[in-house]
Amino acid sequence: MAKTTKNKKYTVLDLFCGCGGLSKGFEMAGYDIALGVDFNQPALDTYAFNHKGSKTLYADLSLDETFDKISSILDGKTIDVIIGGPPCQGFSLTGRRQFDDERNKLYLAMIETVRRFQPKAFMIENVPGMATLYKGEVKDEIIKRFTQMGYKVNHMIMCSADYGVPQIRKRLVFVGLRDSEFAFDFPIATHTKETYITCQDAISDLPSLEHTIGSDVSEYESEPTTEYQKLMRGTCTTLYNHKAVDHKQFVKDTIALVPDGGNWKDLPPGVGDSRKFHMAWTRYRSDAPSRTIDTGHRNNFHYKWNRCPTVRESARLQSFPDDFVFLGNKGQQDRQVGNAVPCLMAKAIGIKLLQYLE
Q1: pLDDT grade, residue 277 (50/70/90)?
Q2: Is the pLDDT of residue 125 over 50?
Q3: pLDDT at position 271, please?
Q4: Spatial distance between the Cα atoms of 168 and 215, rounded to a whole number of angstroms
Q5: Rounded to two decimals, what is the model's pTM?
Q6: Pairing of strands 170-178, 214-218
Q7: Per-residue pLDDT, 8
Q8: d(CA 143, CA 158)
Q9: Catalytic one among 88, 199, 308, 343?
Q10: Among 11, 130, 330, 338, which residue's CB has the most CB atoms within a 10 Å radius?
């Protein structure tokens, strides 16, 4: 395991941490997560529960006083890496020429935190569309600002399925290295379309819940059947967050008519007419990774059972291990899972980054 000259793990500050997908991935890669900061209390509760060696801070990163709070909690501890996924809604309205617009204050806070703490490296993830927004001007401005602070910056649109995640989820990732003559070389894909982890590979061992909605704490009913299922279970012997939506009968009857991998277009005329948009009545494909996990709009259904995926099934598709427990009500849990960065993709970045930190 990589260590610093002080014989300690490299320390990480996670901004806009949510429930902690990025932190979990970096933790898997061997880092010490010093602090997670977010302005969503239910997500932060989940973060604290699952990262017991880390501190948490409920704070608005758009406020200058938050920097002082972070410094106080860290109490002189050196931060080696800053990671995070700041919101970027304002950029779609402002562009490069108004980069410092008030609506972009949260993204600017990420840049300011790096400037203040001067970590050895940083990592920012965001939506792929930012790469081409205003013909790439926003992306170029981000790189320019970090370059002016002494960071060598590289970026790439990464697909989570390429790194063993059973989900097609693309994210724009920036990685900066301080005072480095080398740019970060992104990790090579470990999986191809022929070897992607499928939905069936990921969740087929979990109880069907055909005759029950399940509960937040239950038991496995069968042994894992794939290497991915074994990896997700680890040493966990309790099944958490595997509770189904109690759908109305018309929903069950309608989705029952949709085949594996199908959608509303496969329904008979006059059936399911209340939902006819692009993603309506969509079943995951059993033989492929899932679509991007959303925050719980109930448009995606299990490839086999007549219900939406449970929080645990969605967490599996995001590569959260089974001992990662989600707190809050069902809606809050869905949002936490849907907003997270897939753990195994974050782990791949973290492992590659160790080569540069050493």
Answers
A1: low
A2: yes
A3: 87
A4: 28
A5: 0.94
A6: unpaired
A7: 62
A8: 17
A9: 88
A10: 130
Whole-Å CA distances, 242 to 38, 121, 207, 249, 311: 26, 37, 8, 20, 6
What residues contact 91, with CB distance under 8 A and at least 6 apart? 99, 104, 107, 130, 133, 138
- H or E element at residue 298: none
DSSP strand pairing (214-218 vs 239-243): antiparallel
Amino acid at 227: E
Give the whole-angstrom CA distance, residue 94 versus residue 134: 9
pLDDT interval class at 98 (50, 70, 90): confident
Residue 85 has what pLDDT? Answer: 93
Helices in 171-317 by DSSP H: which ranges? 199-203, 227-233, 249-255, 311-317
CB neighbours of residue 9 within 10 Å: 18
Quote the pLDDT of residue 276.
64
Q: Please confirm, yes or no, whether 159 is among the known catalytic residues.
A: no
The CA distances from residue 307 to 210, 299, 323, in Å, are: 9, 10, 23
Classify strands 282-283 and 300-301 as parallel, antiparallel or unpaired.
parallel
Q: Which residue's entry shows tokens 């997908």?
A: 21
